[in-house]
Fold this protein.
Amino acid sequence: MARFLHTADWQIGKPFGNISDHKKRFRLQNERVRAISRIANAAIDYKVDAVLIAGDLFDSSTVPSEIIMEALENIGKIEVPVIVIPGNHDHGGAGGIWFRDDFLKESERRAPLLKIIQDRKPYILENATIIPCPLQRKQDTSDPTAWIQSIKWKEIPNNYPRIVLAHGSVIDFRPTDYENKNSNYNNRVNKIDLDKLPMSEIDYIALGDWHNLKEIRENIWYSGTPEADRFSLNSNERRSQVIVFEVERRATTKTTIVETGGIKWHNIRFQIRTTEDIDLLENRLEEYVGGKVGKDLLRIEFDANVSLVDFEKLEKILERLKTQTIHLRIKGKINKRPNKKELKDLTERIEDPLISSIALELNKTIQDIETIDNIENDMEDELQVTELALCELYRLSAKSEFIYK
Amino acid sequence: MKLINCHIENFKRHREVNIDFAEGITLIGGMNESGKSSIVDGMHKVLFLKYNSTGHIVESLRSKIYPGHPYIKMIFEAKGEKWTLGKRFSGQSGSVMIQGSNTPTYTGPAAEELLAKLLCVDEIVGSRQASRILPNRWAHLWVRQGLASENLFDRPQDAYELKDIIKELQKVSNSSFQSENDLQVKEKLDALVSETFTTKGTRKNSNLWEKEIALLKAKEYHEQIKSEVKGFEDIGEELEKIEKDLKEIEEEKLANIKITREKLLLNLEKINTNSNELKLIVEKSKLLKKQNLDLEEILIKFDKINKEIIEKEIAHKNSQERLVSLTTKIMTIKIENDTLKKITHRETHELTRLEEKGRYLRDLEEVSRTREEYTAIKKKLLDHKKKLDDLEILLLKKDKIPKIAQNKLELAKNYNKKAKQIEIRIDAMSSILTVTKTDKNIYINNSLMKQGEAKRLSSDIKIRVGEGVEINITPGEEVELEKLNIEYTDCKEKETAILNEVKLESIDEAEEASKQLSEVNQAIDIIKSGMDPKIETKEDLIRSEQDLISLKSRLIFLEGELEKDSTAKDYHYEINSEQNNQLNIELKDCRVKYKEASDSIKELKSHTERLANKSSKLREEMHLQEIRSKVLDSEIKEKKEQLTLIIKQHGKKEHINAIKEKVKSKYCEIKGKENDLISCLKNEDVNKTQEKIDSLYLEEQKLSRQIKELIEKRGSLSERSKAISNKDIYALLEEAKIIYKKREQEEKNQRVLSLAHKKLLNMMNQAQLDFSKKYTAPLSNAINYYMKPLLKEFHDGCRLEYSPEFGLSNLNLYRQGSEILFKDLSGGTKEQLNCAIRLSIADVLQRAHDGSLPLIFDDAFSNTDNIRIELILSMLTDASKRGLQIIILSCNPHLFNSIADKSINLDPNN
């Protein structure tokens, strides 16, 4: 009975450039390194024989030295062999991270048990055989598992389990990562054809590349990231775990999911129509974030039509939230528009005939556009401009008693 | 406001003018240049020009005729008070004073301020702004001289009190169309929009512009990072390729080279071995060949010697035979030789005899000859002597003849001839006097004439007849004759002179002499020619005689000799002519015989010689043959010895042959081997193999250079890669992208905001316009009302537009369905329209001015025809009824008399 820890896609050194605050960015980057410690703990707790990393340990070949050093330091804490294959981010070709002087030096010093497998040859351990499918070049368009078909299985011990360690997308499972506009992901075609693999000879396939936990088929798993690195599309997605599995030759594998995440990435959708809705939002946020500071990332997709005064209120809430979280991503639309009262204030202003007539006209335009079913792009823009004009009119013509900035 | 009185002093044409205005219509008439317009100007200036203005605007007001500064006083009603205003325009020292019925007097700036208030203008303008602003003051109320056809609304907005008009119009309509707030908002919007936009687009340094720039920068940066990333990835690719290439070179190419080279080296070795072997074999075969040849040589030698021996033996035999024959021959010759000797001896003897004979005959001959010679010479000498004598005689003769040079003779002849000619002429000229008859003595030139005698008259002639008659005849042509005579004399003298030189007396004599001379010369020549040239002189003669003597002596000698000769007795020849011939014949004969004998001897001698030669030759040959025979002998011996030696050395012929056969077969064997090897080696070209090896070496070099290059390249690329990776370029890319997106959003937001502002502003302007349209209606209505008589159709009328930018504008007339622009109206219609406008505006504004305003029309209807004038008159009357004060200035005041409340006539002499 061999026990292993399956993880992947650590992407140490991921820059998180969309976080403008450098300190907050650092937190995110650092958390990933800290996650390694948690993985090390899990490895100790579950007494695994080795840790298998199915690619993308590092985010790129240009990860700064300090980060590499720290990562290796933490990997060094894992007291069992750590077996890694190059993924597409940390590919095996010349110019890649594995050949960097600092990496080579530091890994020898700090993580002597770290083994990077670059060759497509079975790697025989004490109690298992690893079938590695490293991505050897930056542009490797072939199926990295194709070579498995040429393995002379007779030369591999048959009493120990065979574990495939591969990185890539699986042919029948094409992920549509909504935030995957990273250039490294473009035009990737190293698709794994699972059907071509002789499953009778293989006991477990440890996959990497897909960042959330997924059982593709029996004994074929994506471990997902040990520390979330993006927002989930839906609540079923799990992005902060490792898999510990027990494997025997020709037997069912037993898998345990171990949480290793630190920072939370929340993704919520919210519709606002009334002031009450805003209050509801506040409650929701309390649920997710609560009093924590610097521990969450929040993505809110809005469908909001707020009055001007409500807009103010909402702005304040979001401002506070921004400070409280590591990153606040606002998506969707927050439309501000004068509510009935505000509008009346403008349109029924007889003492300012121009203002009122203009307000009337603007309002009419807005209503006209909104009655159209399929609003085209330029109409959308027009709507936006008109709405904003109305708001601006309100603002500019505000009387001194009502100070609206 | 109402004008009451105007008093002008020292203003342009006017010394002093005083006008009282009626409440209604005041008509001021005057001829051209009576100063009507000056009055208006004065009123205008006093109201609207600052008192202390300087410069041209003030200077031009001064009267040119009258001293003193312009002074204008105006009394008017305004704001419920009666005011007196006085201004003196003297430049900086000008003064102003204003006093109201309930207001104290103000002077200076305070007065101007008050005045401005009363007139509802911002300020009374000074000289600086005068040219710009002054003409516009009350332009909407007063039609100044010459501006009757001008479109008031073409002027800029601030040319007239638009705001007031609008304000009043608003009041009329009982509602405003823009509030303060509106205007404020509009102003804010104006500011916001102009802050962000220019006519051409985004304004530089505005928020929007900044955001646009930021967006652009972010985009550029993003692109830049992207390309850097690409570069980095490219480097990675390249590095991979280099690795691949290096591997290929190392593992494949170099390995291949090694293998190939080894093969080649092996090949080379093989070739070398074969070559060496071949060399040895070649040596061996050469050796065998040589052996073979040697043996063959021996055999040949063998045969040769044998042959030679035989030959020599034959030769020897021949030689011996020859010897024998030779000996015989020699013998024969000897005998012959002896015979010849005898004959020769005999002949020689004969020869000697003949010789002697010959000698004798010759001597004889010589004597004879000498004798002859002597006789001849003697004769010749005598002959010669004679000739010499003849010659001497002739020479004497010659001397006697007078000699005259030929040329001189000629000359004399000429003179003679000439004289003869002259004579002829003289004769020709002269007359002949003939005494035909006479009984007296006639003397011509003192010479008596006989009867029948004639005399030629060639010169003066004196004829004396008897004693008592003397006739002088001067021939005609005396002068000429005289001349000729002289000439004749002259010639004759000359001739005579020449002749006298040689003592001759006449030409004929001379000629005779000459002839004689030539005859003598001829004779002399003949003689000379026959003489011996050698003997010319006496000395020669003497010599010749001496020669003769010597010859004689010789002859004697010879004869003596002859006699002594012994041979003579054999022949007995006499020296005479007959025997001379015989002598000759004999001599000839002797000679011939001699010749014959000597020839014969010669022949014999030569024969002998030949025989001798032949003999010696034979002897030689014999000698040779003997030697030869001996030599042959020895040679034969030698050869025989050689032969014996060879046999000793090599054995008999058969033996040698046998050996030779063996050698030959061996040779064939080896040669076969040799050929095999050669054909073996033919396919292997050592050079080519070596070349291949060399080229492999070169290739190896090349490859190792390539390796080096690749390594270098790899090194530098790695460096670059490292440098870029140190920048953490992927992080930067992500960052750049995010910033770019952010800036995009920001720019969009800003743009939408700015567009919203723009939209608002446009809407504002449009709203203003729409609103204002409503309020120009009263004005255009008023104008229409005044113009009614001109407008036939119901819909005819004028339209006036208002816009915030341009104010009132686009005043057009619509008549019978078509729109006519102001500028296209006729002059008269323009005037009428202008009048209507002023009246309408004044109508609107009068409310603010206590219900009255003064309107001035200075020559404003000159284009209006008589019929339309009626319309004008009615308009003005109407207006006056409604409270407007009208002042008309015209040079045809009679047109307006009917409506004028007061008429003033300006006297130009004023």
Notes: Chain A has eight helices and 17 strands. Chain A has three domains: 2-259, 263-336, 340-405. The radius of gyration of chain A is 27 Å. Residues 177-187, 401-405 of chain A have pLDDT under 50 and may be disordered.
